[in-house]
Amino acid sequence: MELPGEAVDIAITFKPDLVMRYETELQIKSQLDKKTVTLIGQGALYKFLKGPLPPVISLGHVHIGTPLTENIKIYNDCIYDITVQAKLYDNDPADASEASETKEFISVDPKVIELLANGTDSPTQLDDRGFGEFSLIVNATFPTDEANVDELLALCNKIGRRNFIKLETLGGDKETGIHCIPVTYRFGVYDMALVSVSKYASIKKGDAQLEDSDRLKEIDFGEMAYEAGGSMVMVLYNRNPFKLHVETIMAGHKFAVYPPKASISPNSGKEFRVEMKPFSVSDGEEVSASITLHEYLKLKCQVPLIEEAQIHLTGTFIDEPETLEFNEVIDFGSIRRLFSGEYILEFRNPVRRSLKYKFSIEPDYRDIFSIEKSEHTISVSK
């Protein structure tokens, strides 16, 4: 019973159990009168489209210290504006009553997105649907420059890691408004990369990215004189967020590398000089026209996860000839008819091996000019 002039608020609740239009009447009776109010409501289903979502989100190999981002596009599946929330869990929230939220290595941004309503109940094209995006961000940082090998091995285990992303329509029901997807990834480290000085400079300036084709798998010194040898400078590039302590190993003694050991700071490079040692030749010793040498340079570091690098070294020593110099004109002067004049031409072997030679005179003058030894083999100069 209401007192004279008193007002009271009456809450009317609409809780549909089906997706349909509801209509009924509310009757209000008092001692004075009877009123009827029509109640109308639409049972709505707030949901996003699950069909385009993958059964598993595989992020693949993620390098320590280099964040990886993967975008997930979510489409509206109803004619209402909806809000979708994303959370990450260590175990499947659909199976575990007390699933724990993920605290490290992977995050989602933003936490909530708004999807605009679709214009029709069942759009035929995805582009006709309201949509939004979540970004999965995977990142493992290293607290210090020095690598803790045990921590690295634990972080980069062969099994990899698995989390779950739970997508939920706020205000939706549990059957249609929630969807859980496994997210898999595996941490790893960068291998050492031997690159040219110019390529490393471009990378540090931001003008280029390291491509697999940039890695030097062979160093060819080309051709050079026996006594000359050769030298080339390369950069060993460390893309990891920790130091690498590198040791060089040379199987033979034909080549050398300096420095033999070095520490390379995180995300930095270190120059190494590779030398092809001169070939020792004694005076008067006969040599081959060319000799090609082969050897392998091995690079190893303190982190077992980083494979040992092997670089093929090669180069060719050649017996470079000395320049032959002769007078362009040999002038015998005036020689009495049927008498002869003689000129001694010195021909010195220009190389360090036996050399065949041949002198010839034009056929029409062979009775006039003659050569003592027109064809012979000359040994190495002593």
Integer-rounded radius of gyration:
43 Å
What does the main sheet amount to? 5 strands, mixed
Total number of helical segments? 2
Q: Low-confidence parts lasting 5 or more residues at pLDDT below 50?
A: none
Describe this structure in words.
The chain is mostly beta strands and 382 residues long. Helix content is 4%, strand content 40%. Strands 4-11-10-6-8 form a five-stranded mixed β-sheet, with no helix packed on it. A five-stranded mixed β-sheet has the order 13-20-19-15-17, with no helix packed on it. A four-stranded antiparallel β-sheet has the order 3-5-9-7, with no helix packed on it. Strand 19 and strand 20 form a beta hairpin. The longest helix has 9 residues. The radius of gyration is 43 Å and the shape is elongated. The chain starts with 20 loop residues before the first strand and ends with a strand. The mean pLDDT is 87.
Q: What keyword list fits this structure?
A:
382 residues, mainly beta, 5-stranded mixed β-sheet, 2 helices
Topology, element by element:
Layout (H helix, E strand, L loop, with lengths): L20 E9 L4 E9 L5 E2 L7 E7 L4 E9 L5 E8 L16 E4 L2 E4 L15 E8 L10 H7 L5 E9 L8 E11 L4 E4 H9 L12 E8 L4 E9 L5 E7 L4 E4 L2 E4 L3 E9 L13 E11 L8 E10 L36 E4 L16 E4 L4
Parallel strand pairs: 4-11, 13-20
Antiparallel strand pairs: 1-2, 3-5, 5-9, 6-8, 6-10, 7-9, 10-11, 12-14, 14-18, 15-17, 15-19, 16-18, 19-20, 21-22
Short description:
The chain has 382 residues and is mostly beta strands.
